[in-house]
């Protein structure tokens, strides 16, 4: 997917954009100026801006010159930005997929713990619900014995805050994230331990690796994960269309999951589709016809 970019484009890593000056109607082509925190400046004919919606909410007022139109600002402000986080826990073997000795039934796919009770204490006094996707049920070429837990809301904040605190206090010589992994395993043990065939002393039931996102602590992600429609939203469809349209007259185009087709909002696939769509529109504006 990115091969052409890697081969033919100049990529500047580690650069944070702090200002975008886009052309007005009486400006010549080639006048979209981008300035980075390091003081470097770049000039473009057209600019495709793919910053996450959360980043736009926080920084659009200080980044874009001239200011974005009021309708576009309203669209950015109106669409919600979520705090869904992911935790991956891998095992030597998908022990939960073993057939039941009596019925032959196999548990697979999606698991939910709707109202964790006594078994989830003391780590979950709020009785936050849990859900996990069984990644061992994916196609054979990509399947692996991993449970993907999704969290959101206050629980996401609790987990990411705890991980950040542990990371800040960790011994600098610890390159294995021991404290963070121990926290995740102990936090989620009440749930994966209730899956079929779990045995606390069996090696196949012992987690071997953990990975957790921390988008709430990622400033470049806008301290969140992806767009959503909150209760009370009045014109969400038009808000998305407004962001999707961008400002082509100023050489400024927006792309990302928040500008995706409605069927793919909030997904990496949608972000990819939005980039393809903007690319086609730019090509067409220069007289290139869609193939």
From TrEMBL:
* InterPro entries per record: Amino_oxidase (IPR002937), FAD/NAD-bd_sf (IPR036188), Flavin_monoamine_oxidase (IPR050281)
Where does the record place a coiled coil?
Answer: none
- The source's superkingdom equals Eukaryota
- GO annotation (BP), single: chromatin remodeling
Tell me, what is one Gene Ontology molecular-function annotation carried by this entry? chromatin binding
- One Pfam family this sequence matches: Amino_oxidase
Domain Amine oxidase, chain residue ranges per copy: 2-277
Output the PANTHER family linked to this UniProt entry: CONTAINING AMINE OXIDASE, PUTATIVE (AFU_ORTHOLOGUE AFUA_3G12150)-RELATED (PTHR10742:SF414), FLAVIN MONOAMINE OXIDASE (PTHR10742)
Write the protein's name.
Flavin containing amine oxidoreductase
